[in-house]
Design brief:
The chain is 58% helix and 7% strand.
Length: 297
């Protein structure tokens, strides 16, 4: 694989930063390549949502027919694929309560309420269910409110300390605190921002934990979609293109290479600003063109 980088406008020092970054990206991308395209949009796969809905409908039908074991098994299949499926959590809690599985019923209810707490828009169809499950948890476990208050206080302090550690460039300590907070309250909305900052700014050991810097280069698409679209971009004239904040990338080496290179280059420009003490306040840098060829041809 061959990488070529050039600045779009003349800027000697910036060109050095961006050019060296391209070499770093080339090293990252030395592995086997797969492909993607620009104007294409991912097809809706054959589809997780269809699978989930089919099993949910099966569970509801089984429950109406009095087949409680079958219904419970089907609801569990829903949660295997979609752990945040709130209607399934509601129905499982109700079902286990009727089956005198109080502890399980309480667990499903608490999981539902944890998700509900962070929803920006509360689904009207689930408002009554939320009130029902909240009343059930208070009755079934009088200490639940106290436990929830302690959890919120604990996670809040962890997040505050993690942010302070990141400001002092103590990335490993910050990451450990965020992971502890995630284990305690996995759906807290502030976790994603902190972990994303570490992946972007946390240095080689954390920001580049793997070839894609800890991110999934195929996020938003499926392997099947890539397999269909890659051949459409295997010639240079139809190559994949992507524009990021600081780079304009073009490659015929595949979608994975495109997305991985884009992330690697953005990480590298942060490092080289610091290394060269260049425009440290985030001032604009002229964009660079990056061309990645899959072979000599």
């Amino acid at each position: 694989m061959h990488v070529f980088s050039r600045p779009i406008r003349r800027q000697p020092r910036a060109a050095l930063i961006l050019g060296v970054g391209a070499l770093f990206a080339a090293a990252l991308l030395a592995g086997p390549a797969r492909t993607l395209g620009s104007a294409d949009t991912p097809s809706k796969t054959a589809d997780s949502s269809e699978f989930v809905q089919r099993w949910f409908d099966t569970a509801v039908a089984a429950e109406k027919a009095g087949k409680n074991d079958e219904a419970r098994a089907a609801f569990l299949r829903v949660l295997e694929r979609e752990p945040r499926h709130m209607p399934a959590l509601v129905e499982l809690s109700r079902l286990d309560k009727r089956l005198d599985r109080k502890d399980d019923a309480l667990d499903w209810a608490v999981r539902f309420l944890d998700l509900w707490r962070w929803l920006k828009e509360k689904p009207p169809a689930l408002v009554d269910a939320q009130r029902e499950l909240l009343a059930f948890t208070v009755e079934a476990d009088p200490l639940q409110r106290r436990a929830l208050a302690l959890k919120r206080e604990y996670v809040g302090k962890l997040l505050k300390l993690a942010n302070e550690q990141m400001d002092h460039v103590a990335w490993h300590s910050a990451r450990a605190m965020l992971l502890e907070a995630q284990a305690t309250d996995p759906d807290h909305p502030d976790l994603a921002a902190g972990l994303a900052r570490i992946l972007k700014e946390g240095g080689n050991e954390l920001a580049v934990a793997d070839e894609s810097g800890g991110a999934d280069p195929l996020a938003g698409v499926t392997p099947e979609w890539v397999a269909v679209n890659d051949p459409l971009h295997s010639d240079w004239k139809d190559a994949w293109t992507l524009e990021t904040e600081h780079y304009r990338l073009k490659t015929d080496a595949g979608y994975r290479v495109l997305k991985t290179a884009a992330r690697a280059m953005e990480q590298v420009q942060v490092f080289y600003r610091q290394f060269h003490q260049y425009k440290m306040k985030g001032e604009a840098i002229p964009p660079a063109g990056v061309c990645i060829f899959k072979n000599h041809d």
